[in-house]
Amino acid sequence: MEKETSMESITLEAYGKINLSLDVLGKRIDGYHDIETIMQSIDLKDKVVLRDSEEGITIECNNPQVPTDSTNLVYKAYRILRDMYSIKRGVHIKIQKNIPVAAGLAGGSTNAAATLIGLNELWGLKLSKEKLMNIGVKIGADVPFCIMGGTALAKGIGEELISLKDFSGHLVLLANIGIEVSTAHVYSSLKIDNIANRPNMDKLLLGIDKNDLNIISENMVNVLEEVTIGEHGQIQDIKNEMLEFGALGSLMSGSGPTVFGFFDNEEDLLKCKKSLEKKVKTLIITKTI
Question: If one looks up domain 2-163 in CATH, what number appears?
Fold first, then answer.
């Protein structure tokens, strides 16, 4: 999370993420699910500008799909900090959206994370990163990771984070078919007792430790694919096409529908992108950071 600050405003870059693996272990009594996942920041980012105002909150965004009312996680981040610390000031938040919406890339969560970081600075709260992460989990399960960034093993609902070795600089092709997927629907539809193929976390962690893209690519598993691909078969077609064009591995990120492929050859990536352009709404070249 990078930022520029003046007395009245602060500008932050809010990075998206992909899941290098995702396992669902069980449902909790609070309705959430216990998961085990490796989360990875990517160099696909929104810009979030916070400007001090007299009172209340106003939100604007260049993407009409993004709500600008109390359902936006940015609003929830503002409200929780305002109430916790009895803040009397308001804020205007402008979101320049580059991350596809409801796509499994933590677009909403990373905007909320940027808002917490920005308001902490704007209001002079001097809260530590750990404190902001503890507040963030009350907004959404991916918010703490978006505050931390990098590469991390996440457990619990995603808030128990263990920072892993740097896995930056790997070429990624993102393919998004342009439908919005409800995370709640995907989790509620998953039959946990019937999951046939689960990720081997030991091998994945070894791949991270050795910075070995081949080990990671060969062992990537996302159990939520069973639900989302079952409803949107095009996701499997995209995965297959990425592998045919030389991707070392391909996986759906989060609850979908975005598919990513790891490439060690830019020429292969560009050929794959050109082929997919005929059938996929949004294609983005990025890298791990």
Answer: 3.30.230.10
